[in-house]
């Protein structure tokens, strides 16, 4: 009974583990993802060339020199073998050299900042991670979406990535690499879908309370025309929904499990404003300090006028 239960648990967990592959990095649908999967497999197999013999030999030696073994040849003078030395040094050196070359080449090839070549002009999408949702701005099309990313299959997409506040990581496992989104700076990623489909996207970096609901569908349309139709539909159906700088402030407020939203118009330069936000805030702070300095000098006048409501800590500083 216990054994049957154990078998059932083992079977269930195997099924679970295998179903984990579906839709993940081991089931790639884009060129970058396919190349990365091959890299994972090659690196794993190369390392198994060492790991498997070590495991086999460990078990073999334990069995060969077991306590009850009586007729094994005893060789106390044996201490060195050039053949064994050659094997244990040469094999790892060769593996490290091969891994090194593969790493060097693939690091250049799969550089997330490098545009995908030979597939024509790329589409640009500006990605902003908010607490806790994803904003996608299409600067060339002048539209934006929340928690839904649409692009044509077989067209390279350039993602410009930033964050409103908390650090997140933009990740569509079936298409390839994840890249961090960080406030006050822009990171880049180039991906392509080799076939149409809907792929899961999420943040690969924990970012707080609403993190689990911070998911989106990445939809690759079969054709460019299909994508163009989606764009014109968004424009037509959401023309009243305009993502202005002011609306963005509202959108940026923390919220969880956000439904998909569409914006038929977006203010020019919104992404740039988000990236530069902290630089501007810094400028404002200087201004504030400046005003406060003036305020200090003018405090007597202000006090005399008695019309200035100031926080207590501030007035204490002045006394
Ligand atoms: Cu950074």
UniProtKB/TrEMBL annotation:
GO terms for cellular component: plasma membrane. It is found in: Cell membrane. Keywords: Cell membrane, Electron transport, Lipoprotein, Membrane, Oxidoreductase, Palmitate, Respiratory chain, Signal, Transmembrane, Transmembrane helix, Transport. This is Ubiquinol oxidase subunit 2. Belongs to the cytochrome c oxidase subunit 2 family. It is a multi-pass membrane protein. Residues 310-319 have a biased composition (Polar residues). The gene is cyoA. GO terms for biological process: ATP synthesis coupled electron transport. Its main location: membrane. The keyword Electron transport applies. The chain crosses the membrane at residues 39-63, 84-105. InterPro entries: CcO_II, CcO_II-like_C, COX_ARM, Cupredoxin, CuRO_UO_II, Cyt_c_oxidase_su2_TM_dom, Cyt_c_oxidase_su2_TM_sf, Cyt_o_ubiquinol_oxidase_su2. Residues 291-319 are annotated as: Disordered. GO terms for molecular function: copper ion binding; cytochrome bo3 ubiquinol oxidase activity; cytochrome-c oxidase activity; oxidoreductase activity, acting on diphenols and related substances as donors, oxygen as acceptor. Residues 17-114 form the Cytochrome oxidase subunit II transmembrane region profile domain. Residues 120-233 form the Cytochrome oxidase subunit II copper A binding domain. It comes from Pseudoalteromonas arctica A 37-1-2.
């Amino acid at each position: 009974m216990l054994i049957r239960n154990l078998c059932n648990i083992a079977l269930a967990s195997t099924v679970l583990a295998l179903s984990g592959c579906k839709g993940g990095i081991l089931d790639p649908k884009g060129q970058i993802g396919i190349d990365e999967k091959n890299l994972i497999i090659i690196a794993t197999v190369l390392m198994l060339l060492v790991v498997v013999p070590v495991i086999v030999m460990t078990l073999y030696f334990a069995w060969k020199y077991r306590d009850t073994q009586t007729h094994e040849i005893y060789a106390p003078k044996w201490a060195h073998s050039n053949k064994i030395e050659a094997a244990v040094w040469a094999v790892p050196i060769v593996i490290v050299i091969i891994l090194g070359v593969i790493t060097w080449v693939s690091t250049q090839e799969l550089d997330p900042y490098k545009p995908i070549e030979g597939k024509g002009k790329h589409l640009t999408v500006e990605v902003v991670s908010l607490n806790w949702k994803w904003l996608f701005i299409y600067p060339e099309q002048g539209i934006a979406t929340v928690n839904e990313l649409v692009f044509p299959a077989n067209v390279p997409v350039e993602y410009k990535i930033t964050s409103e506040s908390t650090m997140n990581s933009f990740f569509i496992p079936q298409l390839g690499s994840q890249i961090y989104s960080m406030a006050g700076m822009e990171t880049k990623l180039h991906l392509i879908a080799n076939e149409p489909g809907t792929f899961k996207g999420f943040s690969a970096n924990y970012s707080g309370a609403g993190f689990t609901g911070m998911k989106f569908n990445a939809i690759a349309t079969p054709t460019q025309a299909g994508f163009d139709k989606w764009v014109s539909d968004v424009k037509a159906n959401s023309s009243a929904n305009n993502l202005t700088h002011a609306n963005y402030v509202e959108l940026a407020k923390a919220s969880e499990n956000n439904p998909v939203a569409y914006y038929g118009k977006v203010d020019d330069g919104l992404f740039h404003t988000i990236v530069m936000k902290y630089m501007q805030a810094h400028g404002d702070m200087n201004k504030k300090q400046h005003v406060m300095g003036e305020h200090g000098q003018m405090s007597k006048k202000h006090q005399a006028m008695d019309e200035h409501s100031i926080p207590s800590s501030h007035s204490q500083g002045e006394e």
